[in-house]
Amino acid sequence: MEGGGTMSEGPVVRVVEVTKRFGDITAVDRVTFDVGRSEFFSLLGPSGCGKTTTLRMLAGFERPTEGSILLEGEDAAGVPPYRRNTNMVFQNYALFPHLTVAQNIAFGPERKRLSRKEVQERVSVALETIRLTELSARYPKELSGGQQQRVALARALANRPAVLLLDEPLGALDLKLREEMQFELKRIQREVGISFVYVTHDQGEAMTMSDRIAVMHAGRVEHLGTPEEIYLQPASLFVAGFIGKAGLLPCTVEDVTPTRLTVGLPDGGRAEASRGPHEYRPGLEAVLVVRPEHLSLSLEPPGAGSSSLAVRVVDEVFLGAAIRYLVEGPDGVQLWVLTAYEARLPAGSPGRSAWVRWDPARAYVLPVERGSAPGEGEAPEAANGRLSTLSSGDA
After folding, report:
1. What does the longest C-alpha to C-alpha distance in the chain come to?
2. Which residue ranges make up each domain of the chain?
3. Which pTM was predicted?
4. What are the residues whose beta carbons fall under 8 Å from the beta carbon of 128, sequence distance 6 or more?
């Protein structure tokens, strides 16, 4: 199945300095991004960050207060939803209960007054794509949640849109089925070659499926990049705390080189870390960001010159192949450490003194003034008094 529309050069979607206000409330604030052809692009963020409003503007259900949206190179201002070469898939599926699977999928092509042969061909291809050909005569109530979601996807794909808009489509599924559908959605997107714009608050979904992610916060895009870039080199403290679990360690920049930084730690020690595309200077208040899997934990003191921090083991959680430790450093700073089961500490370690170490290439420094506080409920218990002075509000 191929996407519809023209095959002109350039992105299929271009959002330029788009702002959306509802009275005195700014829901979307000067958002800019492109979506390439055949790209799986996700809008990720907490509730109220503006991601669904952005999606609704792409669909034509809302009009931007300022800025422009181009679809396949054409200005979409004033173009109603039914005339846009887009389709939307909702969380509640919105299937017609009185129509069979095949009839649901055929609805869009029939509305376009395509020939019966063309309609049948599109239905057949869509059913094959979602692997439900044998269920074509069933009604929605006779399907599982995952099957209904695939039918909703097939119904949208049968229209051959240039871009498919998906608003948290897996939110109503249980965890196991949701994880299975993530890989199924990515498979389908690759096969059909249509650009997907996917809205979600689930970091795992976005990281699993996306080619690129726009992390939104308070109506703005805080970081736009690949999953790897966003995970390993977050652009702000909000992104660092919202994507996965991150250790956020207050520090002060002491020395700056073209590739490395030397920072002072809360325990008075010094450590090296990687630098990003930010402005650094000696004396700058900053935060050392390091992922739990990039920390090692030992009851033995480290050697001289290593990048390390003295801590106390607070708790441990058995995860099967790994052990997750919660440790506490100076000033109440708490970090997660993920250790392979074979490298676990001796029994009875909680309450004992220990040391965490890291490879400087795996640690990343963010200036405090460039960041915002971690997303509520998303970061580990890492914020101490210095971090808590930063505010985080969702618009």
Report:
1. 77
2. 13-228, 237-388
3. 0.84
4. none
